[in-house]
């Protein structure tokens, strides 16, 4: 290795659209996070209108539950609403021990007119992740020629490595967590 540097991951991003290929990528992301002791970010990119609706629904639920618990009527901040909305959308994707082991954080982002790939790349850059793990969906020939895949666009534009995981029939092979060591 170069100068005794050890390959390490501290932040891993797994974008998901909640489909089967994304769930496979999440399993890989969890195992990488466990192996390296990294923080795991699960990202769901929604159309701007869908995101607004999710946030507004969460705000209403929080205001109603806050009124019953706290008669002062203090409304939650926009950041609290966004975090809780993301948690409600994505928390069912991880078991409690996976969430704890990976210090998982759930994120929702709007896809602009450029589409979800740009939102994923921007999020990876903003969070300074060292690895993006994504599932790959099979597109038909015409779809692929017209739009390309989100995974392909992320690979081309991300500033960090991107692991594309095919939807597998079996779970990833996982060994016992090890301490990262330098090879001399």
Can you walk me through this structure?
With 184 residues, the chain is of the alpha/beta class. It has one domain (2-56, 82-165): Rossmann fold (3-Layer(aba) Sandwich), CATH 3.40.50.620. Helix content is 47%, strand content 17%. It has helices at residues 20-36, 48-69, 78-90, 96-102, 116-127, 141-147, 150-157, and strands at 11-16, 39-47, 105-111, 131-135, 162-165. A 5-stranded parallel sheet has the order 3-2-1-4-5. Helix 2 (48-69) packs across helix 3 and helix 5 (116-127) packs parallel to helix 7. The longest helix is centred in the N-terminal third of the chain and has 22 residues, at 48-69. The protein is globular, with a radius of gyration of 18 Å.
Which terms would index this structure?
single chain; 184 residues; alpha/beta; Rossmann fold; 5-stranded parallel β-sheet; 7 helices; 47% helix; globular
Gist?
The protein has 184 residues and is of the alpha/beta class. 47% of the residues lie in helices and 17% in strands.
């Amino acid at each position: 290795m170069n100068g005794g540097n050890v390959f390490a991951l501290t932040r891993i991003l797994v974008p998901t659209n909640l489909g089967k290929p994304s769930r496979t990528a999440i399993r890989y992301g969890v195992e990488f996070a466990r192996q390296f002791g990294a923080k795991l970010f699960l990202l769901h990119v929604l159309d701007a209108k869908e995101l607004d609706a999710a946030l507004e629904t969460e705000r209403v639920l929080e205001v109603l539950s806050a009124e019953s618990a706290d008669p002062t009527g203090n409304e939650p901040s926009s950041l609290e609403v966004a975090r809780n909305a993301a948690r409600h959308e994505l928390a069912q994707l991880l078991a409690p021990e996976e969430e704890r082991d990976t210090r998982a954080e759930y994120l929702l982002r709007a896809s602009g007119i450029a589409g979800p790939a740009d939102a994923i790349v921007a999020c990876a850059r903003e969070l300074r992740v060292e690895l993006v793990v994504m599932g790959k969906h099979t597109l038909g020939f015409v779809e692929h020629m017209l739009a390309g895949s989100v995974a392909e666009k992320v690979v081309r534009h991300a500033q960090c490595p991107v692991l594309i995981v095919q939807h597998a029939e079996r779970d990833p092979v996982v060994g016992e967590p090890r301490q990262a060591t330098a090879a001399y």
